[in-house]
Amino acid sequence: MHVAIIMDGNGRWATRRGLPRTAGHVEGAKAVRTTVEAAARAGIQTLTLYAFSAANWERPRGEVDGLMFLFRRYLFAETRRCMDESIRLNVIGRRDRLDEKLLRAIEHSEQLTADGKRMHLRIAVDYSAQSSILEAARRSRRIPDVTAQDFRQLLDEADHSAQQTPDVDLLIRTGGEQRLSDFLLWECAYAELYFTERTWPDFQAADLAAALAEFRRRERRFGRLPGPTPAAAEDRPRSTREWLH
Ligand code: IPE
Ligand code: IPE
Ligand code: MG
């Protein structure tokens, strides 16, 4: 089971309280901690969190710096816990625009948690699904007759993700907006989408449980018909033809 979350609404959470937007990001980091713990307990194998999009560089310098600082602090504080909980931490997205200190912190966390088996935690930073797809397309030119499976591997490579990540089963977006904002466009081909008004800093273990309960009620069809395939399948072409006449 792969759950992906667009953690949105930090700014509005803060503004509503008369606080600076960065205060919302500080609270958001606490919600990350709670959610990671709850997801591991719920038996989720892969959790991908959207922390910073490639487009978020367009925000004011102070907000971007604050987010990068919080991210590094999160890595310092949580790596030990991930090791204890057997969680493999992996940062996906572009790395060439990240600060040297952050880059070292990422590499350090990834190395220390590499053996984690319980859950694969992917944090998307400077991430853009379109850029990843484009990069995978460039790399695919060296493979003759590239298959969807090969392409999926190239995508993980382009994202610095551990290999063999399954496609997304459930995509959650907090903060009330109903859009993907360039997140995991390829991997969400058949994801169930779940939108909640709850802003990210208010997101609790119970909200994750509610999303998972809703997911279990959904019927995933992948383009097929619901239920088992009828036994007398060979009768169908003829009856379809008769009906068309
Ligand atoms: C999500 O919250 C965090 C990031 C995008 C980094 P926002 O900062 O987008 O909060 P809103 O959407 O403005 O409320
Ligand atoms: C998406 O949220 C990115 C993250 C949550 C990290 P945004 O707030 O940047 O997305 P838009 O601008 O509302 O589409
Ligand atoms: Mg937002």
List the helices and strands and how they pair.
Layout: E1 2-6, H1 10-16, H2 21-41, E2 46-53, H3 61-84, E3 87-92, H4 100-113, E4 119-127, H5 129-140, H6 148-158, E5 170-173, E6 192-195, H7 205-217, H8 236-244
Helix pairs in contact: 1-2, 2-3, 3-4, 5-6
Bound molecules: 3-methylbut-3-enyl trihydrogen diphosphate (IPE) (2 copies) and magnesium ion.
What distinguishing features does this structure have?
six-stranded parallel sheet, alpha/beta, 6 strands, globular, 15% strand, Undecaprenyl pyrophosphate synthetase, binds 3-methylbut-3-enyl trihydrogen diphosphate, binds magnesium ion, 245 residues
What small-molecule ligands were found?
A: 3-methylbut-3-enyl trihydrogen diphosphate, magnesium ion
Helix share, percent: 40-55%
Low-confidence stretches: none
Major β-sheet annotation: 6 strands, parallel
Q: What is the strand arrangement across the widest sheet?
A: 3-4-2-1-5-6
- Rg of Cα set: 20 Å
The CATH topology is given as Undecaprenyl pyrophosphate synthetase
The run of helices and strands is EHHEHEHEHHEEHH
Number of domains: 1
At the fourth level of CATH, the homologous superfamily is Decaprenyl diphosphate synthase-like
For the termini, the CA-CA separation is 45 Å
Number of strands: 6
Identify the quaternary structure here: single chain
Structural class: alpha/beta
Number of helices: 8
Strand content: 5-15%
The CATH level-2 architecture is identified as 3-Layer(aba) Sandwich
CATH class: Alpha Beta
Mean pLDDT: 95
**Basic shape:** globular
